[in-house]
Write a structure and sequence with these properties.
Layout: H1 2-22, H2 27-48, H3 64-67, H4 74-85, E1 101-104, E2 112-114, E3 117-118, H5 123-126, E4 133-136, H6 138-145, E5 149-153, E6 159-164, E7 180-182, H7 198-214, H8 216-228, E8 239-240, E9 243-244
Antiparallel strand pairs: 1-4, 2-3, 5-6, 6-7, 8-9
């Protein structure tokens, strides 16, 4: 947590994390702190990225063919805006004819865990904003959602490089790995559409690295895989007041 705090949330995040650790000198206090981060920070991201193989996740954005049939919803409006902003091309991908799938950078599930714990303020309002969406090729979309692939910010504004967590060659085709991309509004000047929020991208990247460096990703995967079938495919569904929270 401390190693990736600054790159995820800046100096204030690093100071908070360091202070939280320093105020827990006893082993049982450290365990409680780790449990809190495990349950209320890492778990929503891990569960939000989970998609059983035999079901279609509510997190997955419809393809471009489905987009225009759902424009009355905030989700559909976001897709249309993100498609226009990104010039109807996948981020860092093939420039020819490909299927486009939209991805929320941060999922709905991270906005509200329960009525007493708000993980990210105002996320309900921003989740379907164009600043929280990017267009990806299907193969990249899957591993991005599963926090295996992330974008690392470069010095130039709105410029990122494609990275993957250790373990396996997650991203395919492999030439996408290490590719530098610059977000720009291809719909300008007729439409003023927000570019991907750098804070959302940094949080997504930081959580991906923390999950895999700590080993929590493997633990969560085992939990979700073990209980998904027993739970009727709903092991990864978060609830608020007893009701499922859309992912």
């Amino acid at each position: 947590m401390l190693r990736h705090a600054r790159e995820t949330g800046g100096e204030s995040s690093e100071r908070y994390t360091a202070c939280a650790i320093c105020t827990c000198p006893e082993i049982h206090e450290q365990v409680d702190l780790a449990r809190t981060w495990f349950m209320y920070l890492l778990w929503p991201f891990a569960a939000g990225s989970h998609q059983p193989s035999d079901s279609i996740s509510g997190q997955a954005t419809p393809t471009i063919d489905d987009t225009y049939g759902s424009l009355k919803s905030g989700f559909g409006r976001q897709l249309r805006q993100v498609n226009r902003r990104d010039g109807y091309r996948p981020v860092g991908g093939n420039q020819g004819w490909v299927t486009l799938i939209g991805a929320h950078i941060l999922k709905r599930a991270v906005g509200v865990v329960n009525e007493d714990w708000i993980l990210f303020q105002n996320m309900e309002r921003l989740v379907d904003d164009s600043s929280n969406g990017i267009m990806l090729e299907p193969s990249v979309h899957t591993v991005f959602n599963k926090l295996k692939v992330y974008l690392e910010r470069m010095e130039q504004e709105n410029e990122y490089v494609v990275k993957e967590v250790d373990g396996e060659p997650w991203i395919h085709p492999r030439e996408l790995l290490g590719r530098t991309m610059t977000f720009q509004n291809h719909a300008a000047p007729t439409r003023d559409l927000s570019l991907p929020n750098p804070h959302f991208i940094a949080i997504h990247a930081g959580i991906a690295r923390i999950l895999h460096m700590s080993g929590a990703a493997e633990v969560f995967a085992q939990i979700l895989d073990k209980y998904d079938e027993a739970a009727g495919g709903n092991a990864g569904v978060l609830k608020s007041k007893g009701n499922p929270v859309p992912r």
